[in-house]
TrEMBL record:
The keyword Hydrolase does not apply. This is Adenosine 3'-phospho 5'-phosphosulfate transporter 2. Signal peptide: none annotated. The chain crosses the membrane at residues 62-79, 94-114, 126-148, 154-171, 178-197, 203-223, 243-265, 277-298, 305-325, 331-350. It comes from Opisthorchis felineus. Belongs to the nucleotide-sugar transporter family. SLC35B subfamily. It is found in: Membrane.
Length: 381
């Protein structure tokens, strides 16, 4: 059956927290509400690439989602570092990104076909700008790995709230509360501290890598804000945005590579190393694409807090594996700086769910007899 606009509207109404997760370093926005099981509304189907998981129990959905997140993104991170840290690949990183866009375009179209979602023809300029921001996000991120310590890149990409806040103020004229601003400041301090540790222990550290990953982060932040605007205006689903972003982005990248004169040399290089480029690149791309869907499934079934907790732990495991699998110096300063970033992430999440979190804490304190009343004596005005 075709998915109707009513279904999509119901999906959007389930949202109280805007969760944006990087799919292959590209923001895809999904609005999910942390809802109660006692809600009178019918539950929305939990889908992963067209497969309905709604018949599974919540624990089974959680297990499937977490397993998928860890398998997909751990392979994604290891392959990404393995491919792009090679100095020989540096001149051809744009071509590898082109191949990545090609795979994402095919996967997103296949998903639209499986779910029988008809494409909407919106204004081309919206999709073109989305594609440009997507190209900037992924291309700069991939290129930065050649110059940057991979754990540093992971930490930077975790601080997407910084450009999102700036982009929200500049693009959508949003206002943010003190907790959100404090969260951004804490994350900024963590980033600076992590970078200083990197400078002190990495003999090959280059600020050009920071410039590239910062550009990727800015594109990602602007992309998240613009996706929100486009979804609200055109009322299209996430998979449609993926399809248009990667298809148009593929054409933009192809034109750019051909104009730069790198196309033929990149094709020759890939022909000489087909296993590393097309074999590893294919697995890398598939893992990134499906990893996103497992994250969105977890958000939909268990809420933003659980999803952020799982993905934060996954990133920690990714960084640990990076130090184990690839030879690089280590310092305890990395740990303390990363903890600052994690604290900033949860402070931002708390600012969005302050009332529900406070009520939950009071209920637990009341349950264990620490307080006498589970509700505040004076309700805030």
């Amino acid at each position: 059956m075709m998915r109707t606009d009513e279904d999509r509207q119901h999906q959007e109404e389930l949202s109280s927290a805007l969760v944006s997760h990087s799919v292959p370093n590209c923001s895809v926005t999904l609005d999910i509400k942390e809802h109660s099981h006692h809600s009178s509304r019918p539950e929305v189907d939990v889908l992963i690439c067209g497969f309905n998981l709604s018949k599974l129990s919540r624990n089974q959905q959680f297990s499937v989602s977490v397993f998928g997140i860890f398998v997909a993104y751990l392979f994604y991170g290891a392959l990404q570092e393995s491919i792009f840290r090679d100095n020989d690949i540096q001149p051809h990183s744009a071509f590898l990104t082109l191949f990545q866009f090609f795979i994402y375009a095919i996967l997103s179209y296949s998903e639209l076909w499986l779910q029988e979602i008809s494409l909407k023809r919106g204004l081309f300029r919206h999709y073109f700008l989305l594609a440009l921001l997507t190209v900037g996000t992924i291309a700069f991120s991939n290129a930065s790995i050649t110059y940057l310590n991979y754990p540093t890149q992971v930490i930077f990409k975790s601080c997407k709230m910084i450009p999102v806040l700036i982009g929200g103020v500049l693009l959508q004229r949003k206002s943010y509360n003190a907790l959100e601003v404090t969260a951004v400041l804490v994350m900024t301090v963590g980033l600076i501290s992590f970078t200083l540790v990197d400078v002190s222990v990495q003999p090959s550290f280059t600020f050009f890598g920071l410039v590239l990953v910062s550009l990727a982060l800015c594109c990602d932040g602007a992309l998240g804000n613009y996706q929100e605007l486009v979804m609200r205006k055109l009322r299209c689903c996430n998979t449609e945005l993926l399809f248009y972003s990667y298809t148009i982005g593929f054409v933009v990248l192809l034109c750019g590579i051909m104009m730069s004169g790198q196309f033929l040399s990149s094709v020759r290089y890939c022909a000489e190393h087909p296993g590393k480029i097309f074999g590893h690149g294919l697995v890398f791309s598939i893992c990134g694409y499906f990893g996103l869907h497992f994250v969105l499934c977890l958000v939909q079934s268990h809420g933003a807090l659980t999803a952020v907790t799982v993905t934060t732990f996954r990133k920690a495991v990714t960084m640990i594996l990076s130090f184990i699998l690839f030879d690089k110096p280590f310092a305890m300063g990395y740990v303390w700086s990363a903890l600052l970033v994690v604290f900033g992430l949860y402070l931002n999440l708390y600012s969005k769910h302050r009332q529900s979190w406070d009520n939950y804490v009071r209920q637990q304190l009341y349950r264990f007899g620490i307080i006498k009343c589970p509700l505040p004596a004076v309700l805030p005005l």
